[in-house]
Sequence to fold (79 residues):
Amino acid sequence: MSESAAPAVFKRKDMMTVGQICKEIPGLFGGSCSRQHVYNLIERGDLTPAFRFGRRQGFFVPKDAVRRYVSGCQFDPNA
Fold:
């Protein structure tokens, strides 16, 4: 019999809102990306897991997931 991994537990204090995520992901011409871009990333599965808490609108994404996404987007223009 195999042991299954315990489900991840996420606390709201460890989560980021879509507005906060916009400030972390750089936009095409500098500044922050759009809210729609963040929703598109969530819908495509590029930014997961994403949750809703209670009746609040919008999504919350763990800070670690946002950091992983941003670090995966880094590139060296000289390479």
Observations:
- The chain has a mean pLDDT of 84.
- Residues 15 and 63 are 5 Å apart (CA to CA).
- The chain has three helices and two strands.
